Amino acid sequence: GDSVTQMEGPVTLSEEAFLTINCTYTATGYPSLFWYVQYPGEGLQLLLKATKADDKGSNKGFEATYRKETTSFHLEKGSVQVSDSAVYFCALTTGAQKLVFGQGTRLTINP
Amino acid sequence: GAGVSQSPRYKVAKRGQDVALRCDPISGHVSLFWYQQALGQGPEFLTYFQNEAQLDKSGLPSDRFFAERPEGSVSTLKIQRTQQEDSAVYLCASSQLGQSVYGYTFGSGTRLTVV
Question: Rounded to an integer, what distance in angstroms lies between the CA atom of residue B58 and that of residue A46?
Fold first, then answer.
């Protein structure tokens, strides 16, 4: 079945550091790929998405590129802020409608 | 409403008790999903509705779990004879028909604790 594997956390960085959270996937069809973010005490929010190979999703300074050849969708940000502290989930969906999530990566940014 | 609303926000149930969790999707959203998120894990799919039709219930973990959406709007997830392993956050999400590839809108979830 379809699956998503994320870089294990927790990840702790200093403010203004460069962030990468790795995500790889396996899918039987041609998936759409997502990053969701869960801030403390809040629900899941869509951060960015990409629906076809080589697409780059971006939002709030975060970026991820859909790499079909390496089945990856790594999340990056050039300069993180304390307010970026949250749990990040990589996910995919195919024609089956449902989302398949990775296990999540907890990110803590220290001032 | 402006977002997906879930109630109650928190629920404590004694083992063996029945519980009902409610989801109000965004008005006009045809697709509705339920997910279960155990502590420290990613959400896992439970079931999917298109209007009132339950098109996929492959993720329901046992026959103690039952979901309905009788009028194609509000949905209820019912868990009978709760067990400790049912303790989790139950998330509801909705999307417009055919738009799931663009992402869903999630509610804040109901945290169920079975004691």
Answer: 24
Across the interface, whether the CB atoms of A43 and B104 are under 8 A apart is answered no
- Residue in this structure with the two tokens 């296990």, named with its chain if needed: A103
Residue B56 burial (CB < 10 Å; 0-12/13-18/19+)?
middle
* Chain B contact for A66 (CB, 8 A cutoff): no
Residue B93 token pair: 């999400």
Question: What is the residue whose two structure tokens read 């859909």?
Answer: A66
Cα separation, B20 vs B10, whole angstroms: 12
Say if B7 is an interface residue toward chain A (CB within 8 Å): no
List pLDDT tens digits, range B44-101.
999 999 999 999 999 999 999 999 999 999 999 999 999 999 999 999 999 887 666 6
Q: Does A57 touch chain B (CB under 8 A)?
A: no
Q: State the nearest Cα–Cα gap between A80 and chain B, in angstroms.
A: 23
Contact B67, B74 (CB under 8 A): no
Are A94 and A27 contacting, i.e. CB atoms less than 8 angstroms apart?
yes
Decide if A103 touches B, using CB distance below 8 A. yes
3-state secondary structure of B17: coil
Cβ within 8 Å, pair A44-B43? yes
Contact residues, chain B, for A34 at CB < 8 Å = 103
Peptide bond into A10 cis (omega under 30): yes
Cα–Cα distance, B87 to A49 (Å, whole number): 30
